[in-house]
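PROTEIN SPECIFICATION:
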Amino acid sequence: MSVTDAVAQPGAAHGARVPRLPPPLYYAAAFVAGTQLSRTTIPLAFAVSPATRVSGAVLIACGAGLGGSALAAVIRRKTTVVPHREVTALLTDGPYRFSRNPMYTGLAVAYLGGVLLVGSWGPLLTLPVALLAVRVLVIGPEERYLARRFPAAYAHYRAGTRRWL
């Protein structure tokens, strides 16, 4: 039996105990807050050149690609992306070979691209708040849930795969 075909343990069917707020909203809120911070306090703008725009667009595309490929893997395995719902399979292939959280990592990479496109350091200053919120409110409960749902398989996977990249 491979790690991705792990048998789920009974009693862990409810899903992770996370807030009902979708994780992308943590990133969006931090980005908006950072942009407003730059507009209402010390100017934190920087010049946006054509190279900066291209770099921002590439980062957004890479982040969207990473998140999209993770979403496709979830759909292929007929499990869920909704953290508080029951997970039916432990994904360890595709982008999950490199990151235990490729969707959240993809959002962070796209966020950095957005920083380059808006030309403000403000959202970069608030990114740690989003990352911390996702880590504490979402990833932590998800990891505890997966450890209960797939005890041996998740321990093996966790030992060999980083949380972010």
